[in-house]
Protein: alpha-L-rhamnosidase
Organism: Saccharobesus litoralis
Amino acid sequence: MFRTKLKKSAALVVFASSVLLGCSQHESQQEAQQNTTAEPLVSKTLLQAPVQLKVGEGFIEPLGYYESKPRFSWRLMQGLNSFKQTAYQIQVASDAQFKSPIIWDSGQVESSANSWIKYQGQPLQSRQTVFWRVKVWNEAKQASKWSSAQSLEMGLLANKDWTAKWIGHTDTELAKSPSQALIATPQYLRTEFALDKSVKTARLYISAKGLFKAYINGQQVAPQDVMTPGWTPYQKRIETLTYDVTDLLAQGQNALAATLAGGWYSGRIFDLKDQDHTQPPRLIAQLEVTYQDGSIKTIATDETWLASQQGPIRFASIYDGEKYDQAKEIPGWNAVNKNISLQSSKWTQVTTENLDADVALSPKRHAPIRVIESLPVQQIVKADTNSVVFDFGQNMVGVPKVSIPMLAGQTAKIRFAEALHKGEFYTDNYRSAHSTNYFTADKTGVIHYQPSFTYHGYRYVEISGFDPKQTPSKDWVTAIVQHSDMALANNFTSSHSKLNQLLSNVVWGLRSNFYDIPLDCPQRDERMGWTGDAQVFVTPSMYMADSYAFWSAWLQSLREDQTAEGKIPSYVPYKEWKVKWASSGWGDAATIIPWDLYMMTGDKQVLADNYAMMQAWVRYHTSHSKNAISSMMTFGDWLQPFTESKQVNRGDTPFDLISTAYYARSIELTLKTAKELGKTADVAELQALHQQVKQAFRQHFFDSQLNPTQGLATQTTYLLGLAFNLFDGEEIEIAQQILIMLLKEADNHLRTGFLGTPLLASVLQDAGRSDLVYELIFKETYPSWFYSVNNGATTTWERWNSYSLKDGFNPQGMNSLNHYAYGSISRWFYEGMLGIQPKTPGFKQITIAPQLGEQLNQAQGFYDTPQGRVEVAWQVTDKQFNLKLVVPSNTTAEIILPKQLIASTVKLNGSVALNQALQNLSAGSYNLTATLAD
């Protein structure tokens, strides 16, 4: 992945209600907005140039880019002079002034499209730097100025671009049968080189089978980047990173060094300790220095490098933590150092390995995990001369930064917990993950330590082994928060404090589990990319964060791990474990995630990239069906509460019903994709298959009154049929009424697990029962979202009752306090409460249909669509409803009134508005007022 001068790229986008909908509008614009048939407003001044230029899935001036034919996107300037784009022109050149011959010129293209415009010139090459700019035309055929030029630098796109070799400590060669302990011991690697001329630019291309930290002349190359390069199907692809290291080099002697640990590459999953630390980690690096005279010098990992395993990090494990021995620190090991040579007992020549032609080295296509922020201790909850427990007040993921007084020879022990169990420090829910760090002091005094090659999910930290004469202090430890670097929107707030806390919990669940891949949980001996959790959360995450690149990258791993038969593993990247079978509702991520991303972005590339995978998954579904009824295995409606099934964790909904419903859903989405991509030869076949499965679903599982013919009638039974369009005509209303009856029988509590819960809100809204959605969300008692809030949750839980303040952890097990699946309800905060929905893919046309409930009198927020920001704020005061709306440039919106306003007189920007006046709203600000019905 790329960096720009090693600066941290993402910061939180702070939501400020004072900014939202704050600007007033000129009277002439109000008139134009009220009369939607009038001529569009056109600026009398020169049009402003496009802004917010981005490449691919949202990258700004990327360094080390991955796509030889990039996609270009931009936005139009918002404000009084907003207009509709009618044409664009893109130019690509090799210099920022565009004085050299143009590499590619789109010419003037008649189109309103401002996103995902694909480069049509000769494919860009490894290392190539280009600049691009764009200008647009409005309805009056006026042209804007050219935008500012934006740079784009390619990474190394193919294995042939590498002259470097994989290197590692010679003792770790598999031929020498190294022990697990030896492989688990991090390696220290280094070389020195001379630069005899003035340096113009320098790029470090680097990766690892495992995890690395790189240094030049004693300075860490990317201090904020952690756990690089990340986790992919290593047998297919390993990601590489590109760094601009020009400012770290000096004329004369220099040193390039790295620490190396096993990470996900050589570590186990779950509790399979026999698979832990069995593959030796390896490093590859290629430093390319361009001198001012244009000549190039390359320093690559090869047999001349030195290696040591005698450094201070004695053990490193994803699940089990780190061990650090201060006595083994090697001063100056990563800098120019005449004392380090083969004559030193600590250093040996490396072993080398050639690149494997079957394993692609590819630029990382989303931002790495980074240090995002630090959190201070909120309180010390327990302290004595032996141990101290710190509470950060927030469940999170990362590592601690420790500064504690120690005596020489002491070993500090640092443990982690998500919650206290009846007041006591509790780690049982971490299962076999030891999740403990150890620091052995060499001298008396305050030590400073921050783990390098592990991570933890925690709220509480327990430290023992400090100087017993010292009084524990809050400044002994700081929480370093880490996750995949993406902009968080912070874009919803309401009048209800618990609802706001719930959204905060969902966002922290996202942050904690977006750790290079979408994890299921970040603390115990699992931490895998479960596909079922992912598919229910993809759309909510897109509303809350700029996560498109994150998901697109993981979809590539999904494609790589799909078998020749079309099977999608239940978790990706895949490592063999007891779950070797595919699961419906989990493997269907192969069709659901690409389609959901397309609806949120309008980028057909995500469909084109994944269409073959979608087709193969449908074929795999078909191979596990008979008479259009699927017999595919499934985890079921995972962790449904109050289940009557003997398989308690899998819910009561019949497995073949779930599998057949998802079979139909995957066919439907693949059919829609075929239509979007113009795959006309596939459309008829998919239409016929979809109709066949739909009819079989209806006839096999229900009688003429839609009562189930097998198993129990569950909420999820009808949610699947309704959400996946498997009922027709009058059957839709019948199914809706049965669902509502089942809710009533449960005292309007949900009885749904991982698969049913994400469907509840939209299905009930379609049934005209948004009041029930509000009631479900605002329930205080188990099972409900507010139950966790009432019990102190700061993230979303795996079970509806994973924990209580009174009784502590649920004795059933499976009690992660940091799962994101049930956080999928946040989608309705945006699509329901605010009412923001894409009427067409990518929000080119937007529907605004806010849903009102008596539990809430105010909500406001925004979403950054590919065209720009759509903003919504509504308030109910004394039966008066007020809606403020900002429609972004180059798009249109329609307002669908809440049912409470249907009989009311509606005013838009001060004038009475009929329904047609609420359609086809052009860019601008709107104020809608009405009186609620009694």
